[in-house]
Amino acid sequence: MQKENEQILIGLKKARTHLAKVIAMVEEGKYCVSIMQQNLAVVGLLKSANDKLLARHLSSCFISAMKGTDEKRKQQMIDEILQLNKMSK
């Protein structure tokens, strides 16, 4: 779990640093396509971190809830995953 957290944090921190550079590019009036390319790199870093977070959630919290007997909690977990899926489109 610790290694997963480290990987997630590294990705998020890279995205933060890269986003600061994208903001500077906009402020400096750099070429739009160059800005968009760099912005897409930030999006990729964030998506990667999100995928890692989802995998961690599914392999821990979600499995634990599905093994339990609380049907309301099971449905809540399923609903959360479905909502995340809608948001990711």
Brief rundown of the structure:
The protein has 89 residues and is mostly helical.
Architecture overview:
The chain contains three helices and no strands. The protein has one domain: Metal-sensitive repressor, helix protomer (Methane Monooxygenase Hydroxylase, Chain G, domain 1). The two termini are 28 Å apart. By secondary structure, the protein is mainly α.
In terms of quaternary structure, the protein is: single chain
Number of helices: 3
Total strand segments: 0
- CATH level 4 superfamily: Metal-sensitive repressor, helix protomer
Run of helices and strands: HHH
The tally of domains stands at: 1
Architecture (CATH level 2) name: Up-down Bundle
Alpha-carbon Rg, integer? 18 Å
Indicate the low-confidence ranges by residue numbers.
Answer: none
Mind describing the biggest β-sheet? none
Shape: elongated
* Separation, N- and C-terminal Cα atoms: 28 Å
The CATH class is Mainly Alpha
**Protein structure class:** mainly alpha
| CATH domain topology | Methane Monooxygenase Hydroxylase, Chain G, domain 1
The fraction of residues in strands falls at: under 5%
Main attributes?
Methane Monooxygenase Hydroxylase, Chain G, domain 1, mainly alpha, 89% helix, 89 residues, elongated
